[in-house]
C-alpha cells in the first residue's frame, strides 16, 4: 500500500489565516465567517479580486507558518508509521504567487512541513524526497501514478475525478454530506482515515 496525500486544505488548513490577513488589511468585517471561500466571495463581491490574489500569495508564502495542521493529523501519521503504511505527499502548487511579493511557494510549503514535524521527524515516516509539489494538475496526476499510489486523499473532487480507476479515491471533506460521492470513500476528519484504507 502507498497512500498519497494532498497538501493544501488536506494536511494544512488556511481558513482562519485568510480571514486574519484580510481583516488586518481592513478588507473584511470581523464577523465574516473565518472560511477561505467566505473571504474570497466577499472580496470578489466588493470588486477587489487583485487583493484576494495578493492575500493568497501571502498565505501560501511569507505567512504560511501561521497556518495550522488539521486536528488529529499528526497523531494519524504516527499511527500509519507504526502500521508501516508508505506515504507520499503529492500536491498541485504554483511556484510563485501571481501578484505581490515573489516567494518560492514550494520552499515555503516544505518549510511548513518541517516546522510542523510532518517530514524528517520521528513522528512521521515521510521524508523530504517523498514530497512532490507539481505546477499543474496533470503533472500531479502523473506523479500519483508514477509514485505507485494505491490510495489517494484529496479535498478536491475535480482531482479525484482525474485519477485513474484502480487507485482508491478518498475525499477529505469536513463539511461533506455522506452519500453524495458513492464511488469514493468520504472522510470528515483525519481520525477516520485508518478505517477506510484497510
What is the strand and helix layout of this fold?
Blueprint: E1 2-5, E2 12-13, H1 15-24, H2 36-45, H3 49-60, E3 68-69, H4 73-82, E4 86-92, H5 105-115, E5 131-134, H6 137-146, E6 151-154, H7 157-162, E7 168-172, E8 185-187, H8 193-196
Parallel strand pairs: 1-4, 1-6, 4-5, 6-7, 7-8
Antiparallel strand pairs: 2-3
Helix pairs in contact: 1-3
Describe this structure in words.
It is a single chain. This protein has helices at residues 15-24, 36-45, 49-60, 73-82, 105-115, 137-146, 157-162, 193-196; strands at 2-5, 12-13, 68-69, 86-92, 131-134, 151-154, 168-172, 185-187. The chain contains 8 helices and 8 strands; from the N terminus they run E-E-H-H-H-E-H-E-H-E-H-E-H-E-E-H. It folds into 2 domains: 2-12 and 69-196, Rossmann fold; 15-65, no CATH class. The N and C termini lie close together (10 Å). The strands form 2 sheets. It has a 6-stranded parallel beta sheet. Strands 2-3 form a two-stranded antiparallel ribbon. Helix 1 (15-24) packs across helix 3 (49-60). The chain is α/β, with parallel strands linked by helices. Helices cover 37% and strands 16% of the residues. Helix 7 (157-162) links the parallel strand 6 (151-154) and strand 7 (168-172).
